[in-house]
Amino acid sequence: MKTLYLIRHAKAEDHGLVKNDFNRNIVSKGKERAIRIAQELAKDLQIDAQSLFISSSANRAIQTAHIFSEILGYPEANIQETRAIYEAHFTDILAVINAAAKDVSQLFIFGHNPGLSNLCNYLSHEEVDLATSNVAILQLPEDFDFTELSGGTAKLQGVIQ
Q1: Domain 3-137 has what CATH class?
Q2: Using CA atoms, how far apart are residues 98 and 95, in angstroms rounded to an integer?
Q3: pLDDT for position 136
């Protein structure tokens, strides 16, 4: 069975006039929390050749993806970046997921709210509000691949907070 991990970026710098939203970086408190959550996730997870990381190309999302890749043992150079996840409606994020190759068994999406929480709710028909660095773990039905994922087709296995 295939598993989808929806990971909200770590806590970032406050909004301001000096730096635009896309370029905001994670703060030390956010980095510490992301490390803790990635370590928790690593306890029950084995990265393999069928694992794929896709991240929003916004600074705070890709920085979070780098933290998780180091702790989980995923090659940082293999992280795919896309602007399509940044400030995206959940259906746009789902389109990125639906495009994953059939051989991908573990898909990690690093992005932003409200899109990720709304996507989790749509896929699982559960109410989830992901805080920064939280990971929603969704299981696809047996014999499903990511191209078939749609509303109500995934089971929420849990949220690491």
Answers
A1: alpha beta
A2: 5
A3: 98
